[in-house]
Amino acid sequence: MNSYQIIGKCDAIQRVLDLAQKAASSDSTVLISGESGTGKELIARALHQNSPRAQNTFVPVNCAAIPHDLLESELFGYEKGAFTGAVHTKVGRLEMANNGTILLDEIGDMPPVLQVKLLRVLAEREIDRIGGSRPIKIDIRVVAATHHNLEELIEKGRFREDLFYRLNVIPILMPALRERKPDIPILIDYYIKHFNQAKNKSIKGINDAALEILADYKWPGNIRELVNFVERMVVLSSGSVLTTKDLPEKTLVDVPIEKLDRDTEPKLEAEIDENPAEVLRQSLKKSFFIGLPEEGMNLKQAVEDFEREMIMEALEKTNSVKNKAAGLLGLNRTTLVEKMKKLNI
Asked: pTM to 2 decimals?
């Protein structure tokens, strides 16, 4: 069942693999649900590859990617002359999958009129091409996938309840990556090796600090996002080991400064005049966070007030010895003196 790079050892993914292994040998319809990027298509391909239909065609169709007015002809095909522009007969995806497997990805985005036609396909195992005069028998295994909660769509009148029960014979729920923390180091290691080979790089691995940050990241894009991050880091890194300086900025937003490698700490004194907003954001990460008031705020004044407070606290802790105060603030002495004059301290 792992022939399609379904990587992981945690209980959540092992339960999925065990269920898929049992389902693969049958022709029962499978409904795979889960967030975008969790690997639903990989499971669908593994179901096909490990089934008696493995030597026949696997046909994926993304119902959300094809415009609704074209989806019917893509799925069912049409006869020559069925409409203006139909200069030849077109075989639809359902017919192309005959004796094989069709993946109806993002089934929750299928328009209601096609849901009715799909219901007949599942019940009768036959299709009608647009403009056709006779039904065509097909022998297919149907796998559907969605990131939607179909039962919620049923309540909203956007998905047929009878179609849901036809599809939901064997349900498989793909866990989000944030629910698979033990697998994150395994996945990162795998894709570092993969992109080393693909991009002619020689990254040896990732250090503990960077790995800890990635393990705590929420992964809204799941495995797809992880793959993109690793590719970016491998391609752009100039070192032999990935560190926190190689991490995408998105992963560092909520990370305490003490968890970052020393070379990633912002040089606030060099940035203060050019980007006060970024300085304030980075400074607040070191101490506390204040939300933006409903009525807005004067950012320049807030930066000045914050700097004044920090400088006065540093002077108090060092008995007004400017060299020591500058050291506490990560500034040069001359920079501190200039700031004190500017802030009338």
From this structure: 0.73
